[in-house]
Amino acid sequence: RQRVAETVDRLALPFVIGLATPETVAKLQLIHDHLFDAHRDLPIPTSILTNSEGVVTAFYNGPTDIHTVLDDARGSGSDSLPFRGSWFRARARVSPFEFVRALIEQDLVQDASAYVQAHRARLQQDPEFATLLSHLGAKLLDQGEDGAVEVFQQAMGGDDRNADHYYNLGLAKQQQRDFAGAITAYRRAIELEPEHMRSHNNLASALAMQGQLDLAIPHFRTVIRLDPTYAKGRVNFASALIGTGKLEQAVVQLQEAIKLEPNTAKAYNNLAVALHRLGRTEEARAYLREAKRLAP
After folding, report:
1. How far apart are alpha carbons 13 and 24 in whole angstroms?
2. E-assigned strands of 45-142?
């Protein structure tokens, strides 16, 4: 690395030059793999021409000359994707859809989002475009990036009968603490797919967080019916039951949760609360001790 820097200084090249980071090389390799038939590591030398907006406009695999670069630079514009330029070998067909999918799989979600917005008209010709948007939105959500709500809304514009799209929109709304928007999205998902378990679960949780426990309880019941082994769902269900004074029912749910997942401290703690309110003090103390052992 030091020798490279010293060589660059000695050459005194009349343009900005520097060393690429591994992240930059990984992005360039991804682009390269979608432009050429032979998918291999970037050859040396590889030259890359970008315009003033930072958009890649040409790849040169192997030696090139200044006249070619200048000609390509004069002909490149900000809308030059898929990439114009001179190619050291024959260019393969480029699928923008597959390129975006690859960006998403590499967790380059902001790059994927920018590409989608710039080339939406072409991308939306693919029948799987709504699914791609939903996948992109989920990645944005997972990484805490902005733009997930907008991407999910765009996905629904292309496929407004898909319950998963509304579920994902609900997740994004809930992350923004827009509980009213999340509740609306989850309810729409359930209208489209009445046994969409994840939507019932999240709708119940969102309603409970809003203090609407009586409305949440039927959805918690549906979650348990659809997945009797979901221990966390039983714990959440029990919390709503305790909040509405249905203590005996809460005890049943918590005991089942403990059978399913014996190391869940919250289940023991909540069971202690329910038993204490029922006057079963000694049992409550035993479960409280276990809760403290599991979560000191």
Report:
1. 21
2. 46-50, 56-61
